[in-house]
């Protein structure tokens, strides 16, 4: 099967340029997301940072989130991951183009959805050539599913779920 796999991340990570004061340049500069992530573990708390760099390669770590680990972690752990690179900001989808390219299915991995969004609203927003009414019809007839299961148009999409669109 001819399948297109997309990975959409719905959060501030996607904001790859930020203007802020650089303490080394002593002025306001543009910091760009290096796409590298660093996790620092301290006791039971893990902090995840995005590493931003100014033009002169000075770094600024932007705190993305912190969460609790189940056990104490000794000392100070550092880890850089490229995982985020695979995810991108949601883009416009044009199904007519996908069909013309011979695609039979589009699969979308969803990450970092902050609000509980309705599936039909979310897709109508990103699919250029389907109206919300058409999206609803596609969901009702099973052409659009979540995790390969039949769902309703008002089903809320959650983090780490996958949307299938059968063309
Ligand atoms: Zn700088």
Please state the oligomeric state of the protein chains shown. Answer: single chain
Number of helices: 3
CATH superfamily of the largest domain: RNA-binding S4 domain
Shape: elongated
User: What is the succession of H and E elements?
Assistant: EEEEHEEHHEEE
How many structural domains are formed by the residues?
2
Proportion of beta-strand residues: over 45%
Keywords:
mainly beta; 3 helices; binds zinc ion; 2 domains; three-stranded antiparallel β-sheet; four-stranded mixed β-sheet; 167 residues; Structural Genomics Hypothetical 15.5 Kd Protein In mrcA-pckA Intergenic Region, Chain A
Overall description:
By secondary structure, the protein is mainly β. The protein has helices at 95-100, 119-126, 132-140; strands at residues 3-9, 17-22, 27-53, 59-81, 105-111, 117-118, 144-146, 156-157, 162-166. The protein is built from 3 helices and 9 strands. The strands form 3 sheets. Strands 1-5-9-7 form a 4-stranded mixed sheet. Strands 2-3-4 form a 3-stranded antiparallel sheet, with no helix packed on it. A two-stranded antiparallel sheet has the order 6-8. The longest helix is centred in the C-terminal third of the chain and has 9 residues, at 132-140. The termini are close together. Zinc ion binds at residues 22, 24-25, 29, 54, 56, 58.
């Amino acid at each position: 099967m001819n399948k297109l796999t997309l990975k959409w991340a719905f959060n501030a990570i996607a904001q790859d340029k930020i203007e802020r004061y650089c303490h080394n340049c002593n002025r306001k500069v543009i910091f760009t997301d290096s796409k590298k992530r660093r996790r620092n573990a301290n006791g039971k708390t893990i902090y995840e940072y995005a590493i931003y760099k100014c033009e002169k390669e000075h770094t600024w770590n932007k705190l993305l989130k912190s969460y609790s680990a189940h056990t104490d972690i000794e000392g100070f752990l550092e880890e850089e991951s490229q995982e985020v690179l695979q995810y991108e900001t949601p883009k416009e989808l044009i199904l007519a183009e996908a069909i013309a390219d011979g695609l039979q299915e589009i699969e979308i991995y969803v990450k970092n959805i902050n609000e509980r969004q309705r599936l039909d609203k979310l897709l109508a927003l990103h699919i250029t050539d389907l109206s919300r009414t058409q999206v609803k019809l596609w969901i009702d007839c099973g052409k659009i599913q979540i995790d390969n299961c039949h769902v309703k148009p008002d089903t809320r999409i959650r983090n780490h779920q996958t949307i299938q669109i059968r063309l």
